[in-house]
Amino acid sequence: MERLKLVLHYFQSNSESISNGICVVLALVSVKLYTSLDFNCPCLPLYNKVYSLGVMVVPPIILFFLGVLVNRHTAVMMDEWMRPVGERSKNPAVVKYLFSAMVQRALLAPMVWILVTLLDGKIFICAFSVSVDPALFSGFPNITGLDAIKILAKVPCKEDVLFRNSSFRKAVSRYVRCYSQAVGWSVLLFLIVLGALGRLIKPCLDDHATFLQTRYWSNYLDVEQKLFDETCVLHARDFAQKCVVQFFKDMREDSNICPPHPQVIPHLTEEWDENEEERLHGITKQEQVDQLLKKWYFSKPELDITKTYRPRMTVFWKEGKERFLSSDV
């Protein structure tokens, strides 16, 4: 139970962990989806390869776009790429890093689907059974009126009348499945070697400090977006609370309408009076809120926190200086 809590805490710690968890879930869903679906080869020379190509290509494309859709890096990357420059300059390296991270996570589920398909071999048999040389196997059914291609196209259909209890069909299926599994293991080995070489060679070719800076600012953009959303929720709640309180105050002052419940308005009014001046900063109309949001979008503040803390530090310095002088006196 403790390990499960640690895993859940890891996936809830930040958006990158959540994106990794979603991509892993998509990969597991692709495996479950492949094992649960029943693929029926058409067993026709003109349609076997088309059907197999559709099974091998269409689901991975769908899974790839699902991975792009659920990845938080997609929204952050597009927001950073499309935003006006304003007071903050753009860094193409950050957008490139976000795009690379998005593509790597989105490719996980499609690659799992392709590997499972190759290792299983059913789709490969459906696609390439007509390419096998029948002279290599014994027990080829000799039926007049049917050429070899039409007979080989029916190899994936074990329930066909031609191949009931046929050693030829089993031998061809085993032969093509071996090729499919060889291709699947080769692709898996290539991906592992490519990933290992990338991890080993990349630090030698790139500046590691630049990589860390790019990763830091990509995480900063993600955190900034989350804080902006949380602040918008808090600000909208206070703004709506002010409108609701004002509305019920007007109703209470109207003598023709029954006053509201006495316990509701005082509670809302007290809570509002504590936070009114601190959070809304004089915003009382929708046009002012829209203007504030447009200003944030078109002119995000410069990444210089000294401008934010300089007035406060000046006040603290003056207070400290006055206390120091008074203590000497």
Outline the structure in words.
- This protein has 13 helices and no strands.
- By secondary structure, the chain is mainly alpha-helical.
- Residues 257-266 have low confidence and may be disordered.
- Helix 2 runs antiparallel to helix 3, helix 5 (92-106) crosses helix 10 (208-253) and helix 7 crosses helix 9.
- Helices cover 74% and strands 0% of the residues.
Q: What's the N-to-C terminus distance?
A: 64 Å
**Mean pLDDT reading:** 79
Count of domain modules: 2
Helix proportion: over 70%
Count every helix, treating DSSP H or I runs of 4 or more residues as helices.
13
> What is the structural class?
mainly alpha
Overall shape: elongated
The portion of residues forming beta strands comes to under 5%
Q: What can be said about the biggest beta sheet?
A: none
Features:
mainly alpha; 329 residues; elongated
Give the arrangement of secondary structure elements:
Elements: H1 2-11, H2 15-36, H3 48-70, H4 72-82, H5 92-106, H6 108-120, H7 122-128, H8 148-153, H9 167-205, H10 208-253, H11 264-279, H12 286-298, H13 306-328
